Task: structure prediction
Amino acid sequence: MPAKLWKKRLDSSQQEHLPLIISSLLGIQILASIRDPIVIGFDLPLQLILVDIGFILVIAILRLWLLKKNPDPKFVDPIIFFVVVLAAIKALDTLAVQAEPLPFYMAIYMFALALCFLSYFYLYLSAAIFLIGWLFVAFQVLTIIEVSASFFAISVGFCLAHMVLTRRISARAQIFELEGKVKELESILPMCASCKKTRNEAGEWKSIEQYIEDQESGLQVSHGVCPECSKDLYGDLLNDREQLKN
Result:
């Protein structure tokens, strides 16, 4: 499959699943915000409260916008990337406030990237931005041992994400290939070599005129005789008619 067509098919697939992806990220953001007072306590810093409320509102507004607007496929990945960056900021803010390694939390974020994108570029870009931000925060609030252990967990999460994304893209390629073969088979019209009748999907043999009129195109067949068939069928009569005219 040509590269441009392949990219277009992947973008269309992402466009189809965009509302589900944004809804899932919104749900995760809400659950993460509910987690904060349960784990950290109800005396949350104002910064974390503002981040929780602000990001939930932004993603919720974006989700409502998607109910009315179907964005161009080429803008789908940037939209998802924007929400993913918000989720990264939320995770890093929680790390800074809680001052604990949270390796499982960070590894899950990395793994979730494979479920959000069908693009290695955005997977690497999102992971790089998150890792840079994580290193900046981690070295301020964690010990070297905690940083090392968390980095190992993040690396495992990224490796799993890369494997999952590879499998997803491979499966999508197989689906595209099968869809192409199905369309190719559907474009074949079974026709009798003798009487020229055609077979429809129900297995019934009908004349080519009936087959055309049975389609939903609204076409109707009108019969006539072309010049070549006129000569074959009525050649002698036409010649005699010309001679009489002369």
About this structure: Strands lie at 198-199, 205-206. The two ends are 64 Å apart (CA to CA).
